[in-house]
Protein 1
Amino acid sequence: MKRPIAQFAATGRGIPERVMTNHDFASIGIETSDEWIVERTGIRERHIAAPGETTCTMAAAAARQAMERAGVHAGDLDMIVLSTATTDRLLPSTAVDLQAELGATRAAAFDISAACAGFIYGTSVAEAMIAAGSAETVLVVGAERMSSIIDWTDRATCVLFGDGAGAAIVRPAKQGRGILGSFIRSDGALANLLYRPAGGAAHPFDEQVLNDRSFYVKMAGREVFKHAVRSMAEACDRALDAAKLTSADIDLLIPHQANVRIIEATAKHANMPMDKVYVNVDRYGNTSSASIPIALDEAIETGRVQEGSTVLLVGFGAGFTWGSMVVRF
Ligand code: ACO
């Protein structure tokens, strides 16, 4: 087994109060049903940010909770790595807004764009910076205001997503606890199966973009589903191999929460019974890069992850990007 370099010192989450249930779609004129959504995805409700609640404010709430639990002050942070697909402004990064909000004056802050696998990517960056001796205390955040970028007239996507943030303090490993193995990968040849076609620098926002709604998320649902199942299975195997462990050594699998059928297929491949799999997609929908840290934080809070637990984190998202991590707590 690999000697860990970095560990999660503490986690936190920032969740909007406002809840939207599957039944609420009728009130905005979406032709769908609770039955369709639950059967296809397992989602029953999701949190939706109120006006004024931004990617940065949700990230700050999650960060403050993680920092308080870790006994870390803003001035202790060497680095802030914020994963998001929903930057509050196109320039500068939301990470620097978060830095200012926290008063983390010593930190280097930057965003990363790796969609639903972003928390795994961000934690891998934190681990590498700690290994290189470039940082000691890193704040890793996954924060998303998905409600700003989904097309609320497209029933095939708008029912799937939710808003929220999760955060972790990553520090040098102690007493054999920490990241035992990890894996990240992407395949840009498949980018157009899940993307926002316009509104960026290649096709800046104009009247055409406004009219054809091409700044919203477009997704080939079935294709994404197939790739998600395949890639999350591969990612589980690769992180376990890197840690030189098998699924029998894992106490809890925490997969990205996009769809309960993807989660079940991943668990089946990894040979993990569903009572060893954390599922909260029913209450949050898909919160992209926030989903894994929110689930991890809940699992720690409810005692499903305890000192000595070995946990497998696995994510997949737009890009496509995917990744996994075995962590001993
Ligand atoms: N309510 C009712 N009917 C709907 C809805 C809705 N919200 N959305 C689509 N339908 C209809 C379609 O119009 C279609 O009708 P038709 O046959 O008359 O044309 C029918 O339902 C079937 O549509 P499909 O898209 O084929 O349904 P499918 O069984 O593939 O389920 C879903 C769709 C849930 C999106 C599924 O493909 C999926 O979960 N894919 C993965 C997508 C995902 O999770 N993406 C998140 C980002 S990546 C990640 O995080 C893993």
Note: The longest strand covers residues 163-172.
Protein 2
Amino acid sequence: MTIHIGAEPGQIADTVLMPGDPYRAKWAAETFLTDVTLVNEVRGMLGFTGTWNGHRVTIQGSGMGMPSLSIYANELIKDFDAKTLIRIGSCGGMQPHVGIRDVIIAMTASTINSPSSGIFKEFNFAPSADYGLLANAVAAAAEKDATCHVGGIYSSDVFYAERPDLDEQMVRHGILGVEMEAAELYTLAARYGRRALAILTVSDHLQTGEALPSEDRERSFGDMVEIALQAAFTESRP
Ligand code: HPA
């Protein structure tokens, strides 16, 4: 048991999927896992442990934004020894060729700032995904209907951004989408020698203003959960 996670020792699996929304954690656990146990409800940030194809998996909400994700990822890694952490979430599309419902597999996550910025001082660390997980996820996504993009994303501190000049530079430099958590997850994984990946569904588009209707969100979210589970439990290439 930690300050923010009420699970007993041993109740958290080596592999943890992390949606931002705790109710998505509940839905994903009930939909994709068997023998599901509720392992955390501190602050309503629900976490569940169950079994997928014979493998133990925890699905733990991270909350929104890097400070919130950082709390859960730190405790999952340092107190519960989680080895593989996969964010499953939504993002805003930033490139014309990236459409609503498309899946983005984040190779890198750029930031202005993150909870880890303080330790780096003048150094610009490049948060990046675990290559083996990324390669597995790309292979798993190829078997689905969803269009998949692999590349850099932006982890923002604000949902309601007011920097069109910055958006312009990111689009110019090929950033595929914007979300609010991955960079800190990748940085913590690098620091503690764990595997991390972020798989995202495009829920809205910054250029076109389009947004995914709420009834479609569940199906797109399901594709991501399946890609994440297959990626986690496929033997990794070096
Ligand atoms: N901005 C930041 N985070 C997001 C967005 C967005 O447009 N869409 C989904 N998560």
Note: The mean pLDDT is 95.
